[in-house]
Amino acid sequence: MDPASILQYCITGLTVGSTYGLAALGFTIIFNTTGVINFAQGEFVMLGGMVSVFALRGMGLPEPVAVALAVPVVTLAGALVERLVIRPASGRPAMDLIIITIGVSILLRGLVMLVWGKDTHALPPFSGETPIPFLGAALMPQSLWVLSITLALLAGLKYFFSATLHGKAMLACSHDAKAASLVGIGVRRMVLLSFMISAFVGAVGGVILAPLTMTSFDVGVLLGLKGFAACILGGLGNPFGAAAGGLILGVLESLGAGLISSAYKDAIAFVILLALLFVRPSGLFGAKDAKRV
Amino acid sequence: MGGFRVDALRLCALAAALALAPLVLSGGYHLTVLTMCCLHAMIAVGLNLLVGHAGQISLGHAGFYGLGAYTTAVLTSTLGLPVPLGMAAGVLAAAAVAFLVGVPSLKLTGHYLAMATLGFGIILSILFNETVAITGGPSGFTGIPRPAVAGTPLGDLAYYFIVAGSLCLVLLLSLNLLHSRLGRALRALHTSEKAAQAMGIDVARHKLFVFVLSAGFAGLAGVLYAHYLTFIAPASFGFSFSVELIVMVVLGGMTSLLGSVLGAFFLTVLPEFLRVFENVEVLLFGLILVLCMLYLPGGLAGGLAALTERLRRTARERTRSGEAADG
Question: Which chain B residues are closer than 8 Å to A95 by Cβ?
Answer without folding.
Answer: 51, 55, 57, 110, 114
